[in-house]
Amino acid sequence: MASGEERLVLKPGQPIPLASRDFARQKYEWYPLLLDEAPLCRARISLLQIFVVSRYEDCRSVLTDDRFMRNRGSALGKSASGPLPFPLPRSVAALTNSMIVRDDPEHQRLRSLVNKAFTPRAVEQLQDRVEALTEELLTGLERRSQSGPIDLLNAYARPIPTRVIGEMLGVADEDMGRFQKQVRVLTEGFSGWRIARTLFWDLRGTVRFVRELIERKRMRPADDLLSRLIEAEEAGDRLSEDELLAMV
Q: What is the side-by-side strand order in the sheet with 40-45?
């Protein structure tokens, strides 16, 4: 704990603000506190009220016990607005078709189709590309370090997943700038009150970009993950466009 900071205290009935700057700054003090004193507790991420489970065995039980459901709509019945505790605009509602918020047998169906695209060869190619990109960025950092300090997050850590995911999906070089903008929407837009702007405005552009990408891959398939997801078939079943959108 940094010098001068007050000792962390769990306040009964008060959700832990997981998306706050204070939590991010002190997260390594929070983690053992949660494990020891509050292995199951209330928390919030912006407008979302959630429960946090900290201990390994408890997490494993939640993930494997059929009494716990991913899909809020299925759990609460017709009174629920959908997988999330609030309705989404029609333009972005398709994002909730992800297998992350689906239960079996629908979860198993989606997972089986996605597994068709994640072949051993595809994973092996991904490893080689990550290593090559890492070497390229490190070489650039070595040159830039001679002129002053470097922001490692923006110059090294962030470009790796962004570029690798873009290349996995087959995003063309000329579209990589647009793709990186959409990645920022998804990684930076769900904190504080920004979540409202993200859900009701920024995500529309993200959905539009991905639908355009899916259409181009349907017309001109290539050796990339999105093309394989489009082509994936299991007993005559394929992913719908909304399911492809949510997977991407």
A: 16-17, 40-45, 48-53
Handedness of CA 10, 14, 15, 21 (dihedral sign): negative
**Quick one: three-class SS letters along the chain?**
CCCCCCCCCCCCCCCEECCCHHHHHCHHHHHHHHHHHCCEEEEEECCEEEEEECCHHHHHHHHHCCCCCCCHHHHHHHHCCCCCCCCCCCCCHHHHHCHHHCCCCHHHHHHHHHHCCCCHHHHHHHHHHHHHHHHHHHHHHHHHHHHCCCCHHHHHHCHHHHHHHHHHHCCCHHHHHHHHHHHHHHHHCCCCCHHHHHHHHHHHHHHHHHHHHHHHHHHCCCCCHHHHHHHCCECCECCCHHHHHHHC
pLDDT in tens, 133-162: 999 999 888 888 777 888 888 889 888 888
Pair of tokens at residue 223: 């050796």
pTM of the full predicted structure?
A: 0.75
Tracing tokens 């850590």 back to the chain, one arrives at 157
